[in-house]
Amino acid sequence: MVKQTIQIFARLKPTKKPTAVYSVDSEEQTGASLEFVVPRDLADGFVNNKRECYQFRFQKVFDQSVKQEEIFENIAKPVADSVLAGFNGTIFAYGQTGSGKTFTITGGAERYSDRGIIPRILSYLYERFSQDSSMVYTTHISYLEIYNEMGYDLLDSRHEASRLEDLQKVMIMEDPDQNIHLRNLSLQQTANEEEALNFLFLGDTNRMIAETPMNQASTRSHCIFTVYLCRREPGSATLRRSKLHLVDLAGSDRVSKTGLNGQLLTEAKYINLSLHYLEQVIIALSEKNRSHIPYRNSMLTSVLRDSLGGNCMTTMIATMAVDKRNLDESISTCRFAQRVALIKNEAILNEELDPALLIARLKREIQSLKEELAMVTGEQRDDKLTVEESQKLEEQVRAFLDDPDTDVTLSLGPDMRKIHYCFSMLKKMFLDKQSRASKCSDAQESPAATVSEDGRTAEVSKLKEMLTQRDNEISILVKMLKKEKKRAQDATAQLANITSDQSLDSQNALRLSTMPLLTEGSTETTSTSQGRAIQYMKQGLQLTMGKQEAFQTFIRDHEDYLTIEDNKNLLKQRSAEAKTLGAQLNEARNRINELKKQLEMRRRQKAAHGVMRNHTESEEEVDPLEENLCKHIEQEKSAYKSTIGRLKALRTEIEHLQLLLERAKVKLQRDFHKWWNEEACSVQNCESEATARCHTGSPSETLQPSSPGTPGFGEPDLSSTVREYPAGRDPSPDCSTSSVQELRRFIPKSTPPLTAVPAWHDKSLDGTVTDLTPSFGWRALSSTKLTPSSIPLTGDQKADADILAFVNARQNLLNRTGPPQQ
Ligand SMILES: Nc1ncnc2c1ncn2[C@@H]1O[C@H](COP(=O)(O)OP(=O)(O)OP(=O)(O)O)[C@@H](O)[C@H]1O
């Protein structure tokens, strides 16, 4: 890397006009200085009139008489040499219009000796190429014009024939490494000096020229002639690429002084703007600690990015006209150059490897290494393993995996092909195993095996419902158990209190006399409810064990239980009678048949005997045996008819009993269903009340009995109360169905109860007779003023006293509190 400030040179344009007072002090070692002396009377405007002497330092100052040859030798040739060495180089000319920039960079057209830097460098480069046969040089040329911030390719063949605005614009592209690339700028390869000069001529011809008042030969565009050089040693992959920018900038004249207008003023503004950005970049580069350099502000600075503060050895030629009238512009140019001189560049040798050559070299190296390896191992290796080698490796890998010894190794030798093959095999096996495992897990989580969330929820709610039902059943059964226990205790206590057989008989008599009988009214039910009950009975098998047990207990406590049992027994009895009658009938029929046979036999014997004797005589004779037989037959027939009549009546009675039983069963089921639901509601209410008490912080955690009107086993048993409480003390205003039913056990019906035997002759057979015991329902007791005479009594003294006491107590209570709600 070469660190170097931009080299600045000054070149003064020859003039025959009166010149400003200046002096050039050239010193070999430290460079040269250019000094302008400005008389006070001449100073005005731009020039600070307080100063008379302006001194500027340059690497070298080329006075008016210096020829192009010397410029090339001193300025261009060192740059060309560095480019040949592989560094980037830039030479740019800066100065006011007509100061000799183009003359310096390109040269004058009049004399061959006026050739400028470009043709001389081209000539020099090709000369050097020819002198250095150890290297292969390749050159390309581009010629870019920047006009009004637009880039044009001066080597475009269409340039001459087209207007400037119709030409394709050169675009600036920037890669991620911030390297600038110019799209639409042609790179022309030139094999020799002549080709290169032809392109230079083409570009110069195409160069946009517009006349201005200041200088008719002046250009208002920036032109960059670039030579791309590639140097390579034959057979070597190393390349050295370098480029040389030769830049002819537009005139640096101040717009105010040039007096331009219209289109030219616009151009001047662009030129000045472009140069202004160039100045900014140069100022930024010359200042220390400036991190941002505004290269992107203009196309010129973007293209010259490498040349200004980058990887380049840059040289500036400040061209000046030393006429008195151009003194201020010359001083301005010198000041600009002084800033440029502060910019440091870091040029590096642009050496790189040719990929194609590198590949070829590596291939050769691989081949030689293979040959060496074959010599050492004694075996020739191909790129791929043979089939036998692959199979052998697979066996080795399987043996390695199957070996339970964890320290086992897989010996493959120094052959990388085998190592790679084994690794790829292991990876494949691993991936296969992974994929199998994922398939298995997918199968386990298949939709068929997954119960849907909805299904689960429904199942859970169903189970919860069943759980609640079982809880209710358990609660009801527990209550029933308690009740049964209490009854048993009461019964035991009562038995203990009974002292005489008479009282025991009285109790039994009372029990029997108050036994409710199955009446037609009690079986009253609508067809709908009956249908439901029958349906319910049909579903009896579906009852839970707890409910079935409750049902059995309920039946035992039901008011119709004894009636049903009596009717059942009666039915059995009648069935047995019918069976007996049937047997009697059969026997009578047999006897009659037997008698008929005997009679027939006797008559045949008589007939046979009559044939032998006088027929008429025989007819007149009366046979006492025959008469006796006929008489017996008649008697048997009569008895037979009588038995048939009895059997028919019995069958009718049996059918009626069956009907009664069927109705009783229906009623029983209906009552049980109703009772069960009420009990379930009661349990739930108790639980919710207990929960509410818990939540409200009630001190009582005990489950309270059901409220009046709500049936439940927690209530006092009315039947036992009636027996145990003295007259006039009504234990409870309970109006529940169970209480009424209990009451019915102890109160006889207002009309004689229909016993099973006479009932089947009654018109209740058609089932239209209404309940014959309504006056003993709760409504009758609560709303009717009963007198002892209107109350049907049992005849038993103690039972009747209990009934009257209960009725009076109930009536007294009602008088105080009013009738209870149904
Ligand atoms: N050193 C020199 N020796 C002889 N002639 C010169 C010299 N420098 C410039 N000239 C002449 O001066 C005239 C103007 O020069 P040139 O065109 O090079 O100026 P310029 O700075 O390029 O102007 P512009 O800014 O307009 O391009 C030309 O005719 C050129 O031949």
TrEMBL record:
Top-level lineage group? Eukaryota
Q: Where is the Kinesin motor domain?
A: 5-343
Q: Binding of ATP: at which residues?
A: G95, Q96, T97, G98, S99, G100, K101, T102
What residue ranges carry the coiled-coil annotation? Answer: 571-605
An example of a Pfam family matching this protein is Kinesin
- Which GO biological process annotations does it have? microtubule-based movement
Q: Name one GO cellular component term.
A: cytoskeleton
Q: Mind telling me which InterPro entries this protein's record contains?
A: KIF6/9_C, Kinesin-like_fam, Kinesin_motor_dom, Kinesin_motor_dom_sf, P-loop_NTPase
Predominantly, its location class is cytoplasm
Which keywords does this Swiss-Prot/TrEMBL entry list?
Answer: ATP-binding, Coiled coil, Cytoplasm, Cytoskeleton, Motor protein, Nucleotide-binding
Q: Where is the composition biased (Polar residues)?
A: 697-709
Record's subcellular location: Cytoplasm, Cytoskeleton
Task: Give the span(s) annotated as Disordered.
Answer: 693-738
> Sorted alphabetically, which SMART domains does this protein's record hold?
KISc
What are the GO MF terms of this UniProt record? ATP binding; microtubule binding; microtubule motor activity
SUPFAM superfamilies linked: P-loop containing nucleoside triphosphate hydrolases
Tell me the protein's name: Kinesin motor domain-containing protein
Q: Which organism is it from?
A: Monopterus albus (Swamp eel)
